Amino acid sequence: MATFTEIRYEVRDRVGIITLDRPEARNALTHTTYRELAEAVETTEARCLVITGADPAFCSGDDVKQIMANITPGVG
């Protein structure tokens, strides 16, 4: 199983549990989070996946500071 830094992933009785694990940022999604989520989903052998977030929030959306960091205004 892969080592993740921004999610936790475990399987219990063929149910995969993915926990977003950036509580200090209210589990905001980064490029790393998206990559780790994709890897967990693509490689799982679980029959069902549950996605949850570490307290205090499920997910506050994208980490805008990181996601938008390399965007040039007026391009795209």
User: What share of residues are in beta strands?
Assistant: 15-25%
Average pLDDT score: 92
Percent helix, as a range, is 10-25%
Low-confidence runs: none
SSE blueprint and pairings:
Layout: E1 7-12, E2 15-20, H1 31-43, E3 48-53, H2 64-67
Parallel strand pairs: 2-3
Antiparallel strand pairs: 1-2
Overview of the molecule:
Helices cover 22% and strands 24% of the residues. With 76 residues, it is an alpha+beta fold.
Features:
alpha+beta; 2 helices; 76 residues; three-stranded mixed sheet
Describe the structure in brief.
The chain has two helices and three strands, in the order ββαβα. By secondary structure, it is of the alpha+beta class.
